[in-house]
Structures are given as C-alpha cells and as structure tokens.
C-alpha cells in the first residue's frame, strides 16, 4: 500500500509539474515548419521570449501549408493543455476560426500573424500582426510594370487559394495591374506552397506562352520554383520576374538577374513582435488591434544595403 501511495503521489506530482509547465507555455503555431520564412519567424519569437517572463515557448506547424486539418489539431491541442497564450499563423481563414474560438472561450489570449482570419472572427483574438499584403501585392505589380511596360502578357504563380495572405497579396497585384495597364494576365496558378509544383507549373506556362513578358511568384516556395524554372528554360534576364520573400535562394536569384526584384516581409519581426505583444497582453497591458510589419522591395541595387539586410534571411 505504501509503495502504491508513493507511486500515486509521484504521478500526481508529475501531473502537477506538467500542468505548471504548460501553464507557462506560449505556443507558436505556423503554417508549416518546412520553410525558411517560418523558421525566421521562429528566430524572432525565440529572441523575444525573454520578454514574456515565466513563460517558455514551443514551436510547431504542419509538414505542408495545405495540411490545414493538422494545424487545426495543433491549436486545439494547445487549448486542451491550457497554454498561457498562442501565436498563430492560420493557413485557412475559415478552418481555424472554431479552434481560435475555443481558445477565446478558455480565456487563452491569441495573437494572429501573417494571414487574417475570416470576417467576424476578430473578437476571438487580441491582435493581428502582418504585412499589408494588398499593399505588398501592389508594390510587386508596380515593380513589374516599371520593367515590362503596360502592354503584353504576364503570369501569376500563386500558392494556396483562399489563404488570407494570398487573397490580399494576389488581389492587390492583379487589381493594380488591371487599373494601371493593359497587360493580359495568365493564371493564377496554385502551387499549394510546394516548390516542385511551382517549378513544373512555371515550366508549362513558359512553354505555352513564348510571348510572356513578366511573371510574379507570390510566396517563398512558389518564387523559388518559378526562379528555377526560368533558369532551366534559359529565360533568366529575358523575362521580368518578381518574387516574394527573401531566403538565400531568392537572394541569389536577385543577384544573378533571374529575379528583377523580390518583395520581402518582416518575418523575423512577426515572431519577435508577436511574442512581445503576447507578453504585454499577459501583463494586462493594452495592445494595438492591428500592426503592419512592413515590406521592402529588394533589387540588385539595394540588396547589400541596410534596408534590405534587415529583412533578408
């Protein structure tokens, strides 16, 4: 009996310890862990976790951005283990709403980064930190028009249809093109944020449209696949290509002329400011409902300057 009582007490203490640990946990849940963009968000979050005193940080995400159900489960699991707060980049504006609502009902503060949730869900989270994706899409379109002109044919290589960032970014791009030029738009094509898919799609688009003057790759894996397809087709420097995000592959494409420019978000800032915002909320301080984390159009001319170095990764 004494041994049983000791075992039960040890189990109780272990459970209590686990509860205490999870109570001090900030769960960072992103669209996928298999992207340097989200890994850079992680770096920013890790740098800021010290500001959330008494809390540790966990970082997770699905294997692919298209694995939306997996991300929903991750948020629900975080709620069930009673974390202190959640920093979330939702891969789908609608599918993540019920899980975020559960966090709200459990009085777990949530800060959203990168992609907006569906209209009407703003009461379930405390702050939204992101690129102004519509403005970023417009900047990409402006950069393309400056090199291509206002007539001819261009293509749009997008990623996950319906993702909050995709709606604003590609919508901003196409609306600006239509309002400021007579360019014909081919696409958009959706890579599901898979580099290999984007490579194959771009290869097909280039083959089917020999008169293509410009092309836009709307996120990191899509732009990388697009860039590789352009090089393989011998079109580097012969077609105006605008990418999005700023990992090493995309930086090299800018330097060697495969990409005319790439529009880079403050991914590190999303993680850093996201954790800092949650720390303020946990300290019962007022925070802004919306924070623009900014973008920089990176070209061969400014890639080595501080404005670009501050966002490249």
Automatic annotation (TrEMBL):
Does the entry feature the keyword Signal, yes or no?
A: yes
Gene Ontology MF annotations? carbohydrate binding
Name the domain of life: Bacteria
Location comes to: Cell envelope
Q: Name one GO cellular component term.
A: cell envelope
Signal sequence extent: 1-23
Instruction: Please state the protein's primary subcellular location.
Output: other
Which sequence ranges are marked TM in the entry? none
Periplasmic binding protein domain residues: 26-285
Question: Which keywords appear in this protein's UniProt record, sorted alphabetically?
Answer: Signal
InterPro entries recorded: Peripla_BP_I, SBP_2_dom
- What Pfam families does its record include? Peripla_BP_4 (PF13407)
Family designation: Belongs to the bacterial solute-binding protein 2 family.
Q: What name does UniProt use for this protein? A: Substrate-binding domain-containing protein
From what organism does this protein derive?
A: Aliirhizobium smilacinae
Q: Give the taxonomic lineage as stored in the record.
A: Bacteria, Pseudomonadati, Pseudomonadota, Alphaproteobacteria, Hyphomicrobiales
């Amino acid at each position: 009996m004494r041994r049983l009582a000791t075992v039960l007490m040890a189990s109780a203490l272990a459970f209590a310890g686990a509860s205490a640990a999870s109570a001090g946990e900030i769960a960072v849940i992103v669209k996928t862990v298999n992207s340097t963009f989200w890994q850079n968000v992680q770096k920013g979050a890790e740098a800021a976790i010290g500001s959330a005193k008494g809390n540790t940080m966990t970082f997770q995400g699905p294997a692919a951005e298209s694995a939306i159900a997996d991300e929903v489960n991750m948020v629900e699991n975080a709620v069930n283990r009673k974390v202190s707060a959640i920093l979330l980049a939702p891969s789908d504006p609608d599918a993540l709403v019920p899980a975020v609502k559960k966090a709200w009902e459990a009085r777990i503060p949530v800060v959203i980064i990168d992609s907006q949730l569906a209209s009407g869900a703003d009461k379930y989270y405390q702050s939204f930190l992101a690129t102004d994706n519509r403005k970023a899409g417009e900047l990409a379109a402006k950069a393309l028009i400056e090199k291509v002109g206002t007539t001819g044919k261009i293509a749009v290589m997008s990623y996950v249809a319906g993702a909050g960032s995709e709606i604003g970014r590609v919508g901003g791009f196409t609306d600006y093109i239509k309002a400021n030029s007579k360019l014909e738009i081919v696409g958009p094509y959706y890579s599901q944020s898979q580099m290999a898919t984007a490579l194959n799609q771009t290869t097909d688009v280039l083959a089917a449209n020999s008169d293509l003057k410009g092309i836009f790759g709307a996120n990191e894996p899509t732009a990388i696949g697009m860039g590789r397809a352009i090089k393989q087709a011998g079109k580097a420097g012969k077609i105006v290509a605008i990418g999005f995000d700023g990992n090493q592959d995309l930086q090299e494409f800018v330097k060697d002329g495969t990409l005319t420019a790439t529009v880079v978000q403050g991914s590190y800032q999303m993680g850093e400011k996201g954790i800092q915002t949650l720390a303020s909320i946990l300290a019962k301080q007022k925070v802004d409902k919306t924070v623009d984390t900014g973008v920089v159009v990176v070209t061969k001319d400014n890639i080595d300057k501080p404005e670009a170095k501050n966002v490249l990764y």
